[in-house]
Design a protein that fits this description.
alpha+beta, globular, 42% strand, 6 strands, 2 helices, single chain
Length: 97
């Protein structure tokens, strides 16, 4: 699992608690920012971006812990200029919410 600091404080989350992850790009005029919304059991959710401390480590560990994730999803999002390019990065196979 991992820990993340949110408005509610530091939360510990197991990889098995992740229901889905949605990736997209925010246009900041001069630059773009890749974002990831993560939805977990117990109505927990959080957003991380490539500006979030630990971003690359989170991506690396998520791809190992959740092997159905497309290994190049963030590259595909980043190559389409001026598009939000909302992408479902992960959906838990059991479909339980």
């Amino acid at each position: 699992g991992f820990s993340i600091k949110t408005n509610e404080g530091v939360q510990s989350i197991q990889w098995t608690e992740i229901i889905s992850m949605h990736g997209y790009k925010e246009d900041h005029y001069v630059t773009d920012n890749i974002c990831l919304d993560v939805f977990c059991d117990n109505n927990q959710s959080f957003k991380i971006t490539e500006e979030t401390r630990g971003w690359f480590r989170f991506l690396d560990h998520s791809k190992k812990a959740l092997p159905t994730i497309d290994k190049s999803w963030e590259l595909e999002i980043s190559t389409s200029a001026f598009e939000k390019k909302m992408t479902i990065v992960y959906n838990r196979p059991d479909g339980q919410m």
